[in-house]
Every structure is written in C-alpha cells, then in structure tokens.
C-alpha cells in the first residue's frame, strides 16, 4: 500500500488550522482594503453567493458582512462526487475608525465581488488653516 506524504501533510494542516469543513474563518472571505481619494474601498470575494444571501449591518463603528453559500439545487437527485467548496453561513467584522462616514456607505455586488465604498468624514479631511497677519491681535507669552 502506497501513501502520499503530501496528502497526509495537507490533512494535518487542515486539522491544525481548522480550515476543513467550515467557511467561518476570515481567510474564507478574503478582502482587499485601500484608500482612493476621499473614500475607503473594501472588496470581499464571495464566489457562488447569491446577492440576496448577503447581509450588511453596521452598529456603532462595527461593520458586519454575513453571507450564505447554499447547496446546489436538485435536492435528493444530486449525488456529489467531489465537494471542496464550503457551504453555509459565514461572516466577517470590520472595526471602522471615527474618521469614516458610516451613514453613507455604498455597496455593489458584481461577478462574485462585494465592493463597499466608505467616504471619509468631512471632519477628518485635510483642511487649510488661515494665518492672521495682524501683529496687534497677538498676545505675548511670558516665560
């Protein structure tokens, strides 16, 4: 009987890291986040998830993305041969900073990618401060 050492290594890795059989780990919902001008953009990979199976909630400054990958239609007539894509409900939370405008988040879902656009709050944007040139208005500081 021959054994495949890489198969055993893969099995052990999945057991140790807990990646087998569940899709609730953050790595299962990979994301990119970046700033583009006056907004932050966050993209989540959600292949095979229907748009109506995605929920977005925000409470205070915590954004929760919850999605469900459902089984293929067909019920009892389907005999699965290989099943590597995890099914079920999974979620991910992001803690948003005070400098973001959470009242104006825009969400778009296309080609299995959920894209969130979060504008920077007006109070957090860089601004120019005028300098007064009148010396008579200044107070002298004594040491």
Quick take:
Belongs to the small heat shock protein (HSP20) family. It contains one helix and seven strands.
Describe, in plain words, how this protein is organized in 3D:
With 143 residues, the chain is mostly beta strands. It has a domain at 38-72 and 85-124: Sandwich (Immunoglobulin-like), CATH 2.60.40. The chain is built from one helix and seven strands. The strands form two sheets. Strands 1-2-7-6 form a four-stranded antiparallel β-sheet, with no helix packed on it. A three-stranded antiparallel β-sheet has the order 3-4-5, with no helix packed on it. The protein starts with a helix and ends in a 24-residue tail after the last strand. The model is unreliable at 19-27 (pLDDT under 50). Residues 22-134 form the SHSP domain. It comes from Amycolatopsis bullii. Belongs to the small heat shock protein (HSP20) family.
Provide the fold topology:
Layout: H1 5-17, E1 31-36, E2 39-45, E3 54-59, E4 62-69, E5 88-95, E6 106-110, E7 113-119
Antiparallel strand pairs: 1-2, 2-7, 3-4, 4-5, 6-7
């Amino acid at each position: 009987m021959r054994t495949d050492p890489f198969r055993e290594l893969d099995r052990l890795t999945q057991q140790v890291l807990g990646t087998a059989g569940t899709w609730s780990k953050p790595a299962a919902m990979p994301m990119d986040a970046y700033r583009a001008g006056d907004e932050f953009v966050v993209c989540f990979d959600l292949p095979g998830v229907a748009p109506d199976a995605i929920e977005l909630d925000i409470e205070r400054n915590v954004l929760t993305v919850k999605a469900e990958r459902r089984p293929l239609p067909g019920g009892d007539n389907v005999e699965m041969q290989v099943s590597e894509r995890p099914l079920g409900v999974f979620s991910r939370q992001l803690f948003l900073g005070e400098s973001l405008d959470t009242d104006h988040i825009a969400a778009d879902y296309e080609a299995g990618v959920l894209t969130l656009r979060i504008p920077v709050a007006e109070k957090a944007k860089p601004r120019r401060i005028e300098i007064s040139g009148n010396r008579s208005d200044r107070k002298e500081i004594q040491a």
